[in-house]
Every structure is written in structure tokens, then in C-alpha cells.
Amino acid sequence: MKNIKGQKYENLRGLVRNLDEQKHLTIEDEEKYNKEKKRAENDVLMNEDVICCTCITSADRRIREFTFHHVLIDEATQAIEPECLLPMLKSAKQVILVGDHLQLGPVVICRETAKAGLNRSLFERLVLLGHRPIRLQVQYRMHPNLTFFPSNTFYEGTLQNGITEDDRKMNNKFPWPENKPLFFLNLYGSEEISASGTSYLNRTEAVAVEKIVYHLEKAGIAANQMVIITPYKGQRAYIINYLQKNGQLLAKNPNFYKDIEIASVDGYQGR
Length: 271
Description:
With about 270 residues, the protein is mainly alpha-helical. The protein has helices spanning about 10-20, 25-45, 80-90, 110-115, 120-130, 145-155, 205-220, 235-245, 265-270, and strands at about 70-75, 95, 140, 160, 190-195, 200, 225-230, 260-265.
């Protein structure tokens, strides 16, 4: 609220200054602060053309009485149906759901919730009811060689490339099979329950990841250019610990592995 401008917010700025200096307000000043803050928030929100928030926040008291003609829900396929219904209750005349039901869906841990059918997104339900989504056919992110597998496995071979191999030059010092920046490595390691008791880890996979990181570094790839993605939080934690204790590059640079981003699929979705 420090950035609120205008003479009518002078009382609020004064109360904010008092709060910063004294770390607390009197009961009377606290009531004034809450009243002035609510008024300022309402003024700001009423004068905006677009309000961005999460689906859950759309039910927040500050915009509870607001109505919107258009609602756009991004990553809609990762939200369960009740989440999507909240912003739709804002008297929306048009709702646009953006997402991909063939990628990561809602993460529902509660078995009873999933059994009740709430582990499906509204987007997916509409597709199952016969509503055909508009698919963006051209991708501009990845190397064209990476398009082949998802296109043929999930999208009936319809994905097209808006970039060329020259736009995504690969590092030829890394021993890529068939000179393509992609390979599947089959490992015979068993999954174990992680320390949390709710996730999994695979020690053999972590060993292979360390070896690949070693060869990437030898090929001239910096740590902050690497990302390791795993489906399980337990495996993420194990890989972090394994690299920082057993990595071959520790002697060369003790902090090397700390600069590698290691994320879950859920956490890295959309990037």
C-alpha cells in the first residue's frame, strides 16, 4: 500500500508509516487502517480493465461482488472442476479455457476426492462431452527433432515446427546418439518409497543423472544452463542430495551442483 498515490489516501499512508515505525497500531488506528486499506484496494481494482488472480482468489472478499464479461483460465487442465467454477460464477458471458489435456493434469492426492471424479479438469470433461478444442499446431520452443515423439505419440502427427535446427543449435561435444539432442535411456533400477513416505526415488536413475551432468559439463555446458526434471518430489530430493555428496565435479567446483535447477514435472510445467 506504500505506492498508493493521491491526497485521499494520505490518512492511509500516515497509518502505514506509523505501523512501520511502531510495529503495531492502537485498536482505534487498526480499525481506521483496515477501513482505509479496504477503500483503497476497492478503488484500485475498480479502475483496472483486467484483474489477474488464481481461480481460488477469484472468490476473495475484495472482488466478491465484481462481475466480469470475460474470464480466461490459463493452465486450465491442471485445475480441478470446482476451481474453474469459482471464476465462472462472476457472471461471465464468455469463458476461455487454455491448456492441454494431454499433458499434466490436476494433482489430486486425496483418494476419496479422486474416486468421486474430481481428479479431472473441466477442460477434459468438455472434451469427453464432444467439445472440440482449438489446437495450436505450430511450436516455436524446442529443437525440431524433439517434436517427433510428442507429435506422433499424442497429437496424431499434427505438430509443426515454427523454427529450424539452425535456431536451436545443439552442442556437438556431448555424445548424442545419432547426432540428435534426444535419447531414451532404459535403466534397470527399482523404485523405493522416499523418506516422506508419500513419494518415490530411484537410486540407479540418480547415478545415471550424475554421469550425464558430468559429460554435459565436459562438453562446455554451464550448471545454470542445465535442468533436471523428475515426476517425483522424493526423487528430486534424492538427486539433489546425491549430486552434492557424490558428484564427480565437486573437487573442481564445490558449488557446481547448487547452480543446477532440479525440479518436479509439476513445478516446471509451462516452462
